[in-house]
Design a protein that fits this description.
The protein has 3 helices and 10 strands; from the N terminus they run βββββββαβαββα. By secondary structure, it is α+β, with helices and mostly antiparallel strands. Strands 3-4-5-6-7-8-10-9 form an 8-stranded mixed β-sheet. Strands 1-2 form a two-stranded antiparallel sheet. A hairpin with a 6-residue loop joins strand 1 and strand 2.
């Protein structure tokens, strides 16, 4: 599968780690403008889907992207699958695509996700006050990021 947004063609490849494989989702799962690219996170041993990880609000011309990860079943959390998937995506984004930046936006009420990305080396960039609305309540949005030079420094 290829993505040809902004006249830049990239091949969406399968990405593989020790316990998981990331499988590109078909184009109908991408945003209408083709900017978001999603992968299914699949357990290699039993071929069961664990969740999804995606480059969101991708800007190839600026060499940066946002990133989301979703592992809906609590039994698959805290098992290292998310860190493996994140590592594969970082490698793809920084090594294959030569992007300069990954940004993450997390509602402050999701402290588990904030801790996850901080553990993975993402740095606090700021807080968007009252930027998220859910269940008739506003929450701040925590802005985290990882730069290519930080990624390269640890690899």
């Amino acid at each position: 599968m290829t993505d040809t947004n902004n006249n830049q063609s990239i091949y969406l490849e399968y990405l593989e780690a020790e316990r998981i494989i990331l499988i590109p989702l078909s184009e109908h799962r991408m945003a209408d403008d083709g900017i978001d690219i999603w992968y299914a996170i699949v357990d290699k041993e039993n071929r069961a889907p664990i969740g999804m990880i995606g480059m969101v609000h991708r800007h190839p011309e600026w060499k940066n992207t946002g990133l989301w990860i979703v592992i809906p079943d609590e039994r698959n959390r805290r098992e290292g699958y998310g860190l493996e998937a994140l590592g594969l995506m970082e490698q793809y984004i920084f090594d294959s695509l030569a992007y300069q930046r990954i940004a993450v936006q997390i509602a402050e009420c999701n402290q588990t996700a904030v801790r996850f990305f901080k553990k993975a080396g993402y740095k606090l960039e700021g807080v968007q006050e009252l930027g998220y609305f859910n269940n008739n309540r506003y929450y701040d949005v925590v802005l985290l990021r990882l730069l290519r030079k930080e990624y390269m420094g640890r690899h």
